[in-house]
Specification:
This protein has 258 residues and is of the alpha+beta class. The protein folds into 2 domains: 74 residues, Winged helix-like DNA-binding domain superfamily/Winged helix DNA-binding domain (Arc Repressor Mutant, subunit A); 170 residues, GAF domain (Beta-Lactamase, 2-Layer Sandwich), CATH 3.30.450.40. The chain contains 9 helices and 9 strands. Helix 5 runs antiparallel to helix 9.
Length: 258
């Protein structure tokens, strides 16, 4: 009997995590029917989970429309992750310096399996928009940040991350694992990664791994409006990124951060 109770508890915990992750990757409010279609959970179980998560502050409910979205508790937990990461203080200083040196928006991200998660951003002072990417995740293969980090892995490890297809974000996104592996070979030789309109139309990016862990988990990037840099200028910016990432990695290792 205790074994059945334990299994039920584990199953409930797993469903709770999957439900929260379903909200995390979608921007809109979600109804019970939509959540049922996304998760496949029985409606009775969903009702109970949603009620519990709302009571705990992890979700918010729009009672009039019977819809739900992430609540304040999710933000507090995510912020705590960043506040307790010793690398972030050094990363923020580097991003500030990169923005001043280049004039472009600078990002700091970490690989989580086959995706990258943005941990910090410094928007260009000339930017006409101020949309923070912090906490957002994108497929690693679609970004310069992600490709720089994938290049830290072996070909077999890359293939294991993407056993199926590579769903495109734009018409320019790399479309196959062999092509991705070939790009990673070039990134290792060059020392930094590039992409042109693969994750966002109108933008090109350059990125470099911060070498303080093996394999590398974190990377820096600059996002460049397509009309503000030529291919040659993007390559020069890549060298700047690689230098900044190397310096940051040295500082983190010196501080004993791993």
């Amino acid at each position: 009997m205790p074994e059945v109770t334990e299994q039920a508890g584990v199953k409930s915990a797993r469903r709770t995590v999957e439900l929260l992750e379903a909200f995390a990757v979608r921007d809109a409010w979600l109804s019970l029917s939509e959540l049922h279609a996304i998760t496949g959970f029985p409606r009775s179980s969903l009702h109970g989970l949603l009620r519990t998560l709302c009571e705990a502050g992890w979700l918010e409910a729009d009672a009039a429309a019977a819809r739900y979205r992430l609540g304040m508790r999710a933000l507090l937990c995510g912020t705590a992750y960043l506040d307790r990461d010793p690398a972030m203080r050094f990363a923020r200083e580097t991003l500030e310096d990169l923005r001043e040196r280049t004039g472009f928006t600078a990002h700091y991200a970490r690989r989580d399996g086959g995706q990258i998660v943005y941990l910090e951003t410094r928007e260009s002072r000339n930017s006409k928009r101020s949309v923070s990417r912090v906490g957002r995740a994108l497929p690693a293969y679609s970004t310069a940040l992600g490709k720089a980090l994938l290049a830290e892995l072996t070909q077999d490890e890359i293939a294991a991350l993407y056993p199926d297809s590579l769903p495109p974000l734009t018409p320019n996104t790399v479309s196959s694992v062999p092509a991705l592996q070939q790009e990673c070979d070039a990134i290792r030789a060059r020392g930094f990664a590039t992409e042109v309109e693969e994750s966002t139309l109108g933008l090109r990016c350059v990125a470099a791994v911060v070498p303080y862990r093996i394999p590398g988990t974190d990377a820096l990037s600059c996002a460049i409006p397509l009309d503000q840099a030529t291919d040659a200028e993007a390559m020069e910016l890549g060298e700047i990124l690689a230098e900044a990432a190397t310096t940051l990695g040295r500082r983190l290792r010196h501080a004993g951060i791993r």
